[in-house]
Fold:
Amino acid sequence: MKEITLEMAEKMLQAAERWAELSGYPSSIAVVDKAGAVIAVHRMDGAGPMTTDISINKAFSAAYSGAPTLMLARMIDPRMMGPTPGSGGLGLLTQAKLRLMFIPGGNPIRDEEMKVIGGIGCSGVPDGVGEISDTTVVQAGYAAIYEEYD
Amino acid sequence: MVMNIDMAKKIIKAAISRAQEIDTLCSVAIVDERGFLVALHRMDHAPIPTVDIARDKAWTAATFRMPSSDIGKFGDPATPGFGFNTQNWNDRLTTIPGGLPIRDGDDIIGGIGVSGGTPEEDVTVCEAALAAVLKPC
Structure:
């Protein structure tokens, strides 16, 4: 698996949407390639218009940084400012033409050799309300491309 | 009838199969009647900027309720409405052909934008996709 095709992206979206439906919150889900460019975005019926751009930017942030946006959120946490001024992650806030998202719900997609080949992001499912969060939804999407290899 | 994700997926599928027939690589964007993105697919190996161009075309077509190619007529000083280019519109406005409003009778229910081929090819893909999906309705 060298790169994400549209077919794979649709498969991931299908699996992720099933989990978003289970959560009861309609949401937007986006898949980007390793350049951070959109391959496919879906906004489910009832999801707010804001969620599309947020899901795209979450997927972009994950592919760009190679880390889940959950970890980016940790980096800008004021309680983790580091030993010297500026050694925390606050400088990330203005990077990438302000496209970086610091809300959990974006995960990088890796191939078998752990190289980042893309990202997937979800927005619309609130965190901590039910069993399912944005992060759960993107993990379900990520797992879908590996299902055939099991 | 309002735009929903199932209809958007069907339109995109029809558009991509048409694009494969005429051998172009493109992105297809579907927006709802307010111009908000519903679904967007980029074909494998289609250039990266086509994503945003397709979305801009769809936005323009849906919100101005006319094909994106018609926006250019406002640049003619003889046309009523000349000068609208100096207004502070949303920066998604584009005059490139390849965006069409999606109609249900007299109502606008959304917009489609295709980017990747020549402007003529983009319009062909738009029209084929809308004809394939909306005719049975």
